[in-house]
Write a structure and sequence with these properties.
Blueprint: E1 7-10, E2 24-29, E3 32-37, E4 43-46, H1 65-79, E5 106-108, E6 112-118, H2 120-125, E7 128-133, E8 138-144, E9 151-152, E10 156-158, H3 162-165, E11 168-171, E12 177-180, E13 187-188, E14 190-200, E15 206-207, E16 210-217, E17 223-224, H4 312-316
Parallel strand pairs: 1-4, 5-7, 6-8, 7-10, 8-11, 9-12, 11-14, 12-14, 13-15, 14-16, 15-17
Antiparallel strand pairs: 2-3, 3-4
């Protein structure tokens, strides 16, 4: 913590704690206490009788800031996907002219979460925000979708105060720098800019919380204790438009040249033998003594009467399987011959 001559006052029974106590000292004087540098000017004035032993170092229930900010950045990114669900009018209940130099939007909120999406250009044009109604169970989430850097002159908030500020959240998901100008009005609600260096130059107040990557407060305004306690749920999420992937240009496929198929060599036909003429009464061979006569075979072309008749078993036998054959099996189809489950 760096002191530069000013005083930060802690009210409403709250306490202060500094992790690194190097160069600092704590004092307690009855119902008040303070933390100040050992040399130099500036202090933290605590309007409670806080004990000095609780002013420095990390308590057992200290916030894990790296983990907490990772969660806050993720939440801010999620808020950026929420769709607008309220209709903003002008004082005559007509449409707003966002091309005008200044605009005065009028909001009528309903119970539950109310999402108001704004661009950075629209936010800078707003002069006064008037809430015609804000039910006790209503939450207003303002999402500035494209803010990166720059100064914001906070507009006037009409129709609400600190009693409603704890249900208003102004989110800057993409901001890296945010400066509240010196002539700003009071911010009614909390500021969520977890990636930004936030500077308060305004002489007015912030009624809520400031969540930033770094924070500088050099104006004369105050940050009042109104932590965000709204209920953000049941919202419509904007579905991103899918980017079509470029189609690859098909390359020309060369036409394959015809490859002649190898021709099969032609087989030379064998000459058919002409049967020799046979005598109608062939001579019987001379019997050899001691041996029975050997019958003489007759040469000639085979005829169907000389081929063995087809056996019934060969014609109707099923395909070979590992199952034993049945005796005298009747003709069956191959499918019927398979065993169940095979």
């Amino acid at each position: 913590m760096r002191f530069n001559g000013g005083t930060v006052t802690v009210n409403n029974g709250q306490y202060a704690r500094v992790l690194d106590s190097t160069g600092l000292k704590g004092t307690k004087n009855g119902a008040t206490a303070s933390i100040a540098p050992m040399s130099g000017t500036g202090s933290i004035a605590i309007n409670t009788g806080q004990a000095t032993t609780t002013m420095f170092g990390a308590p057992t229930n200290a916030v894990n800031f790296p983990s907490a900010f990772a969660t806050l950045r993720a939440e801010a990114d999620t808020y950026a996907t929420y769709a607008n669900d309220i209709t903003v009018r002008n004082a005559s209940a007509g449409a707003l002219d966002w091309n005008a130099a200044t605009v005065d939007p009028y909001l009528t909120l309903s119970g539950g979460t109310n999402v108001w999406r704004l661009t950075s250009d629209q936010l800078r044009r707003i002069r006064t925000i008037t809430l015609r109604s804000m039910p006790s169970d209503a939450t207003l989430l303002v999402v500035v979708t494209d803010w990166t850097t720059g100064s914001w002159k906070v507009p006037d908030f009409s129709g609400i105060g600190i009693n409603q500020a704890d249900r208003i959240l102004i989110a800057f998901p993409t901001a890296t720098s945010l400066t509240l100008a010196a002539d700003s009005a009071t911010v009614e609600g909390s500021i969520l800019a977890p990636r930004a260096a936030v500077s308060l130059l305004n002489r007015s107040d912030v009624e809520g919380q400031v969540i930033a990557a770094s924070f500088s407060h050099t104006g004369g305004g105050e940050i009042h204790n109104a932590p965000f306690d709204g209920d953000i749920r049941c919202v419509t999420v904007i579905k991103p438009t899918p980017t079509p992937s470029p189609m690859p240009t098909p390359s020309a496929t060369p036409t394959p040249s015809a490859t002649p198929s190898p021709s099969r060599p032609r087989r030379r036909a064998r000459p058919r033998r002409r049967p020799a003429a046979q005598s109608p009464h062939p001579a019987s061979p001379r019997p050899i003594r001691g041996r029975p006569p050997t019958p003489r075979l007759t040469r000639g072309p085979p005829t169907m009467s000389r081929l063995p008749p087809p056996s019934r078993a060969a014609k109707c036998s099923p395909p070979a399987t590992r199952w034993p054959r049945r005796r005298r099996a009747s003709p069956v189809s191959p499918a019927a011959s398979r065993a169940p489950g095979r």
